[in-house]
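Whiteboard transcription, Tuesday session. T.W. wrote the structure tokens on the left side:
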């Protein structure tokens, strides 16, 4: 492995560890089907159609989401199957976090990769 590859791997590992720690704790969190609260925030900047690629989103999901939401099911994070959140609400949640879920800035998950994750989430029945 090159030094650059090792550095990237170390960063990704660190981000995953932070996500796992943030998702840890007692209790099961939200139940599937419940919507998150954006706290009355204006979601207009997060609105728009899903433009991502589900196959690419699977890789991003595996790296950033599956630690708490394995196979979209309830791990230490809530079950993602058949949730009723809108794409705008999920974009907001990814960028701002909520409860035990950490926020992922554009320096961690790019806008393109966020769209890819949203496309992948349709496999769990979201946004139907």
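and on the right, the sequence the group agreed on:
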């Amino acid at each position: 492995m090159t030094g650059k590859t090792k550095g990237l791997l170390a960063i990704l590992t660190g981000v995953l560890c932070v996500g796992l720690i943030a998702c840890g704790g007692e209790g099961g969190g939200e139940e599937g089907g419940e919507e998150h609260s954006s706290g009355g925030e204006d979601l207009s900047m997060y609105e728009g159609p899903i433009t991502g690629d589900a196959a690419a989103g699977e890789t991003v999901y595996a790296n950033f989401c599956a630690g708490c939401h394995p196979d979209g099911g309830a791990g230490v994070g809530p079950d993602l199957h058949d949730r009723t959140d809108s794409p705008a609400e999920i974009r907001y949640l990814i960028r701002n976090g909520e409860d035990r879920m950490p926020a992922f800035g554009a320096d961690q998950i790019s806008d393109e990769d966020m769209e890819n994750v949203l496309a992948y989430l349709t496999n769990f029945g979201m946004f139907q």
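Someone added at the bottom: The chain has a mean pLDDT of 78.
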